[in-house]
Design goal:
Layout: H1 3-10, E1 23-33, E2 41-46, E3 67-70, H2 80-84, H3 107-110, E4 117-120, E5 122-125, H4 126-134, H5 137-143, E6 146-150, H6 158-170, E7 174-179, H7 185-192, E8 197-201, H8 207-214, H9 219-231, E9 235-241, H10 249-262, E10 268-273, H11 277-285, H12 299-310, E11 315-318
Parallel strand pairs: 2-6, 6-7, 7-8, 8-9, 9-10, 10-11
Antiparallel strand pairs: 1-2, 1-5, 3-4
Helix pairs in contact: 4-6, 6-7, 7-9, 10-12
Length: 320
């Protein structure tokens, strides 16, 4: 574990000093979701993540600041962005180059008539976010739904998240969190005190493989999974099923055995088959997608993964 990753896990990144006047950094809100907890739910996606999963479907969530995307198909080549760029990184031949030199001031977004340039991420206050979520409270009541916080990694903005969850619980809104589990137990425990359902991602039991594909070893994740399963009201394991990464017979049996033996209160598993949506998003961010061209899983492979996990007396759902 490098020093930067260790600081992120312990909550000592620049973002961990949030809340800035009780604000959090989000990048999307999706309403009427039905696959991220029970009933109809509102999904809130928070920015910042200590992992760098090679298959990440939300690469815009990884950074701990506002990103700028470039949608080349929308560009009308008016070149106004070049005129307002204080870094001088844009020119007529390279409208999306030298991303490392971009200071993300947003000037180019402000003058882009065709919306080829867009900001990803905005600061919201607790009351502002709650007002958005509570608009659908009738649907939550009728379907046993609620709000689900994902990302990115929600625990990255721990102070803001705890206060937001408290407000939801005070107002009778069911809460769910999706986490990669790579954080301190102290931080996670504070969140779980106000969490009805924990969606816990398990990507790979083998720590060396986990580090190869996510950038970090998984000992902290394993420890937190065991502690959380004993502490939270309900926990569902979520498995992003990735070809050549964690879909082998040995990988799936190791996972099933771990859940059966170490997480006895956990009875449900969600399989999330790989898709390549993250590749086009990474391109718009100017990021490399190292799994470019990776095949999707065949239906038979997904069903076989389900059968293996079911053999450990687990209720397994495939979420497409």
């Amino acid at each position: 574990m490098n020093s930067k990753t260790n600081l992120l896990m312990e909550g000592k990144s620049s973002l961990s000093i949030i809340p800035k006047n009780k604000k959090g950094l989000i990048f999307d809100i999706q309403k009427f979701a039905i696959h991220d907890g029970y009933g109809i739910r509102t999904l809130v996606f928070m920015k910042g993540c200590p992992l760098k999963c090679k298959w990440c479907s939300n690469p815009e969530s990884q950074e701990v600041n506002i990103d700028i995307t470039f949608h080349s198909e929308k560009c009308i080549q008016c070149y106004e962005c070049i005129n307002v760029c204080p870094s001088g990184v844009l020119n007529k031949n390279n409208l999306f180059s030298n991303r490392g030199d971009c200071i993300k001031c947003g000037n180019c977004v402000d003058v882009c008539y065709s919306q080829a340039r867009q900001k990803v991420g905005r600061w919201v206050g607790i009351d502002e976010l709650f007002d958005i979520v509570k608009k659908d409270s009738t649907y939550y009541t009728q379907t046993n739904g609620g709000v689900t916080i994902g990302g990115g990694e929600p625990t990255f903005q721990n102070e803001f998240l705890v206060e937001f969850l408290k407000k939801c619980k005070r107002n009778g809104i069911n809460t769910a969190i999706e986490t990669c589990g790579y954080t301190s137990w102290e931080k996670m425990k504070k969140i779980l005190d106000y969490t009805d359902l924990l969606l816990f991602d398990m990507k790979q039991i083998n720590s060396e493989k986990h580090e190869k594909y996510t950038g970090v070893k998984n000992e902290v994740i394993i420890k937190n999974a065991i502690l959380a399963a004993q502490y939270v009201k309900e926990m569902i394991i979520r498995v992003p099923l990735i070809p050549e990464v964690n879909n082998s017979y040995d990988d799936l049996n190791s996972l099933g055995k771990f859940i059966h033996e170490k997480l006895p209160r956990v009875m449900k598993v969600n399989i999330l088959p790989y898709h390549s949506m993250g590749e086009s998003k990474a391109m718009k961010l100017g990021k490399e997608y190292s799994l470019s061209g990776l095949r999707t899983l065949r239906k038979e492979e997904i069903q076989e993964a389900k059968k293996i996990l079911q053999s450990y007396k687990l209720e397994v759902d495939i979420l497409n």
